[in-house]
Amino acid sequence: MNDVNKAVECDVNELKTRLQSGECSLVDVREYPEYAGGRVAGAKLIPLGDIEKRYTEIDRSQPVYVMCRSGKRGAEAQKKLNSLGFSEVKNVIGGIEAWKAAGLPVEKDADAVWSLERQVRFTAGSLVVLGVLLSLINTYFILLSAFVGAGLVFAAFTDTCGMALVLTKMPWNKKADASGKTKVQRA
Length: 187
Known about the structure:
The chain is an alpha/beta fold. It has two domains: about 10-110, Rhodanese-like domain (Oxidized Rhodanese, domain 1, 3-Layer(aba) Sandwich); about 115-175. The protein is about 45% helix and about 10% strand. It contains eight helices and seven strands; from the N terminus they run E-H-E-H-E-H-E-H-E-H-E-H-H-H-E. It has helices at about 10-20, 30-35, 50-55, 70-85, 95-100, 115-135, 140-160, 160-170, and strands spanning about 10, 25-30, 45, 65, 90, 105-110, 185. Helix 6 packs antiparallel against helix 7 and helix 6 crosses helix 8 (about 160-170). The longest helix is centred in the last third of the chain and has 19 residues, at about 115-135. The model is unreliable at about 175-185 (pLDDT under 50).
């Protein structure tokens, strides 16, 4: 019987070798804006939250490699796929960040939006500045800045970000072409 908690990992060099030989499927479990901003060529986008709904799109006839930004979501996706009966799932240690650090090629959409992290920084900073400026009119508006600051502290402690979850739902963070085709640019 398959051990659903079994963590099998690989490094980016193993992944590169397996991809070159066509001996694996690569699933990128990040959100669309992250994927559009830089990915391994041939990676299939299935965000972590969609794994249970879309796992039938993954080829079970060969090993499945899962990749995210740094490895955390990949490990979660690996557990989910193992529990869904996949027999060989490997999490890529260090994710796309390790891939890029190794100097390996990435592709990105020509019209990619800002990364979610950058969108969160922009939105949080804007709300803090707005709260400070509005507090000149009414001192209670400073609570907006305090709320955003508390949210950032909570995000750091829990390694989750409510603002990022909201931003992923915004129309500019959705794939524009329903056919699944994107304009690719090699980076």
